[in-house]
Write a structure and sequence with these properties.
The protein is an alpha/beta fold. It has helices at residues 39-50, 57-65, 69-72, 78-93, 113-116, 130-135, 150-155, 157-178, 191-201; strands spanning 11-13, 19-20, 22-26, 34-36, 53-56, 99-103, 121-127, 137-140, 146-147, 182-185, 204-206. Mean pLDDT is 79; it is low at 1-21 and 25-35.
């Protein structure tokens, strides 16, 4: 089962006065076998800065099903995998704690979209240009270990740029359908600056 840890703290958005107990943090687009260098750093740093617990959907998938992401993405079909992702999201959001939840882009959100649209959940979509995302692109092996291969990446730049553009368009539509109104432009800033801007933009201060 997935372990949980309760943190007794609440935050108030200084711009609206709204109390926030959960932030669903939509990560920038990525596809099988790739990641971006500062994705996980940013979302973990954000959780630490505002003293929320942190959950990454990909990590929870690995713990819950006891397999690597490489194995998971080659199991059944996309709808089946998104159903499993949705079940885990539903389970995590039932925990009575304040959290940053990083969600992998999902094509079939019908299994969880109702539970993440709530007054105490702040939905954020991280956005950046295809060129900036490509510059941060790294790869993962069969054991989910990240590595850099600049030569291979640059030799196949046209392919990856097309994939990134298609993903931005496709998942942007999905996020709009879910109701993600907060689209945060990363502007290729470093992790510390992105986290600082997120905190300032959404007024994430202790109550």
């Amino acid at each position: 089962d997935i372990d949980s840890k309760t943190i007794n703290s609440t935050y108030t958005n200084i711009n609206t006065g709204e109390e926030i107990s959960s932030i669903t943090y939509e990560v920038e687009t990525s596809f099988s076998g790739t990641e971006t260098l500062n994705n996980k750093i940013i979302r973990l740093m954000l959780a630490e800065k505002i003293k929320f617990s942190f959950y990454d959907l990909d990590d929870e998938i690995k713990k819950y099903y006891g397999r690597t992401l490489e194995e998971f993405v080659h199991t059944e079909n996309l709808r089946w995998r998104d159903q499993k992702r949705g079940q885990i999201i539903n389970k995590i959001l039932k925990w009575d704690e304040n959290m940053v939840l990083a969600i992998t882009p999902i094509s079939y959100p019908d299994n969880f979209e109702k539970c993440i649209v709530a007054d105490d959940i702040l939905l954020i979509e991280l956005c950046d240009s295809p060129e900036n995302i490509f510059s941060r692109l790294v790869f993962s092996d069969e054991e989910d270990n990240l590595y850099i291969d600049l030569q291979y990446k640059n030799e196949h730049k046209e392919y990856y740029m097309n994939e990134i553009r298609e993903d931005i368009h496709w998942y942007g539509q999905i996020f709009d359908k879910i109701g993600v109104k907060n689209k945060f432009a990363m502007n290729n800033d470093g992790p510390e600056k992105v986290v600082s801007r997120l905190i300032k933009e959404y007024g994430l201060l202790p109550q």
